[in-house]
């Protein structure tokens, strides 16, 4: 199994130089639930050289409607452990690092996450509280692709220090819902996860498409909208 064969169709689409660039990159996937499952799988199949999977959760029954890395056989097991096994089984070109932790806003947790070098963050968390802490890991050299889903609606944007507003500025007045679990359908999770993953690739290639722009996806009427973020 060689990279040239595994990624032959990728190379025909975007070229050998971009493929090599992906092989040299590392991405932190924060949360390997619904969005994270889709994002991680696309990034592995694209050929990203290293993924760091951060999640403290275990697989349970309500996850199975949308978290495409998991099956009933995985119930009760740590998500990062199962995800690493499933992703490693795709091919051997991506190094998978597991970080089974819940990110908290304290020096110990932030230091533990920062010990891993990465080019950017795929924000697949499901609460703004967690996302605001995650954003604190960001340096000026890195990018942060945020994604979120609810019902049949989703959104994606790229955050970069000194170029865009911070996530905290965009959502300063938003509170996490107290009525959980929240409704979400599998199709929007996979759709937004795939688009989020591709924006990660765009960033790794130095050509982000969603700086100061929010992509909004509404599956109810198949509307895709780009909203400028002032």
Question: How is this structure best described in words?
Answer:
It comes from Candidatus Moduliflexus flocculans. InterPro entries: ThiF/MoeB/HesA, ThiF_NAD_FAD-bd, Ubiquitin-activating_enz. Residues 7-228 form the THIF-type NAD/FAD binding fold domain. This is ThiF family protein. It holds the Pfam family ThiF. The protein is an alpha/beta fold. The protein has nine helices and eight strands. The N and C termini lie far apart (47 Å). Strand 4, helix 7 (128-135) and strand 5 form a beta-alpha-beta unit. The chain has helices at residues 3-6, 8-14, 16-23, 34-46, 79-88, 107-114, 128-135, 167-170, 186-204; strands at 26-30, 50-54, 95-99, 120-123, 143-150, 153-159, 213-218, 223-228. The model has no long low-confidence stretch (mean pLDDT 95). Helix 2 (8-14) crosses helix 3 and helix 4 crosses helix 9 (186-204). It is globular and about 50 Å long. An eight-stranded mixed sheet has the order 3-2-1-4-5-6-7-8, with helices on both faces. The longest helix is centred in the C-terminal third of the chain and has 19 residues, at 186-204. It has a single domain (3-228), classed as Rossmann fold (3-Layer(aba) Sandwich), CATH 3.40.50.
